[in-house]
Design a protein that fits this description.
The chain is an alpha+beta fold. It has 2 helices and 7 strands; from the N terminus they run αβββββαββ. The protein has a 7-stranded antiparallel sheet with strand order 1-2-7-3-4-5-6. Strand 3 and strand 4 form a beta hairpin. The model has no long low-confidence stretch (mean pLDDT 87).
């Protein structure tokens, strides 16, 4: 019986790790919502589950120098392009397969105002909550 519980526990841990991850915020681009060093619980989701206003973890373009970025979803495919992004892109609506991501701190981060659209497929996860770290 102990072996069954151990195997079931191992499977549960594997499944949770495939669905959830802990992300550390690096930088001030999401101030005042998130600060440098905050830890977030993020859940992997399919594109149809994404909503404007959610904070997303997205694979960073290679030239940025980090693996992931933490940004707010400001536009999904078919949405009007936000005015702050319009000078960077040509379309009036977000194209299929693309997403607009913005930093909460408009002066402190790399986002769609600099880069234009991000591939929807590069959205890795949606943050669920900020974790309290005990010292």
């Amino acid at each position: 019986m102990l072996l069954v519980v151990t195997c079931a526990s191992a499977l549960l841990i594997v499944r949770l790790r495939a669905t959830y991850s802990v992300i550390r915020v690096d930088g001030d681009s999401m101030l005042p919502t998130l600060t440098d060093g905050d830890r977030l619980l993020a859940r992997r989701v399919a594109a149809p589950a994404l909503r404007r206003g959610q904070i997303a973890v997205v694979r960073a373009p290679r030239f940025v120098g980090s693996t992931f970025l933490v940004k707010r979803i400001a536009g999904l495919p078919g949405d009007p392009v936000p005015p702050s992004v319009a000078p960077v892109v040509a379309e009036a609506r977000v194209p299929v397969g693309k997403v607009v991501l913005l930093s909460d701190n408009s002066e402190g981060g790399f986002d769609s105002r600099d880069h234009g659209y991000f591939p929807l497929a590069d959205v890795h996860a949606i943050t669920r909550r900020k974790l309290q770290v005990c010292h």
